[in-house]
From TrEMBL:
Signal peptide: none annotated. It comes from the Eukaryota. Keywords: Repeat, WD repeat. It comes from Notiomystis cincta. The gene is Wdr89. This is WD repeat-containing protein 89. InterPro entries: WD40/YVTN_repeat-like_dom_sf (IPR015943), WD40_repeat_dom_sf (IPR036322), WD40_rpt (IPR001680), WDR89 (IPR039328).
Length: 386
């Protein structure tokens, strides 16, 4: 574990994207995984410009940009079996499926239904067979909507109507959806109602499908799976809390809660830089270790180790971003990290890397130029003190 922590702390900038003519916050990032050796060719980011931008995974060269005709595009998720298939939420009541190899501005497939709903979080099962999206609360309901995604890797077919919905498990906006990494029938959802629900969607109805309900006591901002066999679930909250549960204890008398931290900013000692917010969790499968990634409003990125004894700072990545980091994507294949934030920058970090795309002096000039055109919210919800 110590060697792993040293490796994570040794991450250095390998590449940074060339600033766009239209600077925008990078709100969500994903990288394709289905290429040779498990490393895909593409990375994608959803932007505050209401669009999705696609990049070359290694060089961060911008390839194309998709814009929704029926509303802003939110979130990005690549298919598992084909690295050119990308999903995003698209306007009211729809998810769009894009072929990132094609420059066409029309999605290759659209998942429709519930046109009055706004989708917030979504995910695609590890088998690429089911898509699930969560909605904002509307007419006293917050829904989990499911579609049959068979054929999604072909990027072909007409619009698809939902298979069905779950309507009784959450009472407010469903912010995050995450399928299990290896069991396609398991999915976890989080909401602003504070609940984190685990479902087995192979069951016949919603009541039977609900395996577990955990209460974070706060609005859920991110969640995921962790632990050996991915039998654990964690979440972070919009007021920078952290909760970690063990689903393996469901049928035992042992407590499910592994750790509960009301405010990570008060628990993690980050010297003079401080901790302003949490972004998400990162489970390192080889080491069997859960980490959190957080940061400061000036762009420092903190790597935080999780144990049942509490949270501890592993290291800080400095000199990359100049504003709040909104999202990241970890690649276990080459142990690299993609990060994006409110400074309109997409960065690729690798252990011991030397930045090759720009000289240090030039990169600072470009960053400064972008900052002048992008108003950075240092007092946003995720970095505001209680």
């Amino acid at each position: 574990v110590e060697a792993l922590e040293e490796q994570l702390a040794a991450l250095r900038i390998a590449r940074r994207c060339v600033p766009s003519e239209e600077p925008a916050y990078l709100l969500d990032i994903d990288a394709s995984r289905a290429g040779a050796g498990g490393r895909g060719r593409f990375a994608a980011a959803s932007c505050s410009a209401r669009s999705v931008r696609v990049f070359d995974r290694e060089t961060l060269r911008p390839l194309r940009e998709f814009r929704g005709r029926q509303g802003p595009l939110r979130g990005v998720r690549f298919a598992h079996a084909c690295d050119s298939v990308l999903l995003s939420a698209c306007g009211r009541g729809a998810l769009a499926c894009w072929d990132v190899r094609a420059a066409a501005q029309s999605p290759a497939r659209v998942f429709t239904g519930h046109p009055s709903s706004v989708f917030v979080g979504f995910d695609l099962s590890c088998s690429d067979l089911v898509v699930c999206a969560g909605t904002e609360k509307a007419e006293e309901e917050a829904l989990l909507v499911f579609w049959d995604a068979r054929g999604v890797t072909d990027c072909a077919g007409a619009a698809k109507e939902p298979l069905g919905v779950y309507s009784e498990s959450h009472s407010d906006d469903i912010t995050k959806i995450c399928f299990h990494p290896s069991q396609p029938s398991l999915v976890v959802s989080g909401s602003t109602d504070g609940l984190v629900n685990v479902f087995d969607i192979n069951k016949d109805n919603e009541d039977d499908a609900l395996i577990s309900t955990c209460n974070s006591d706060s609005s859920v901002s991110s969640l995921g799976w962790a632990g050996e066999g991915y039998k654990q679930v964690y979440c972070t909250t919009h007021d920078e809390g952290f909760c970690w549960w063990d689903m393996a204890q469901l049928d035992t008398e042992e407590p499910m809660t592994l750790l509960r931290v009301l405010d990570a900013r008060e628990s993690v000692c980050a010297e003079n830089r401080g901790l302003h917010y949490l972004v998400d969790g990162l489970y390192h499968e080889k080491a069997g270790k859960l980490f959190l990634i957080g940061g400061t409003s000036t762009g420092d990125i903190h790597l935080i180790s999780c144990s049942t004894d509490g949270l501890s700072l592993v290291g800080t990545l400095c000199g990359g971003h100049s504003a709040t980091v909104r999202s990241f994507c970890w690649s276990p294949t080459d142990e690299s990290l993609l990060t994006g934030g409110e400074d309109a920058q997409l960065l690729l970090w690798k252990p011991g890397a030397v930045e090759r795309s720009l000289t240090k002096k030039a990169s600072l000039k470009i960053s400064s130029s972008v900052q002048k055109r992008v108003r950075v919210h240092n007092t946003s919800l995720k970095s505001r003190e209680k």
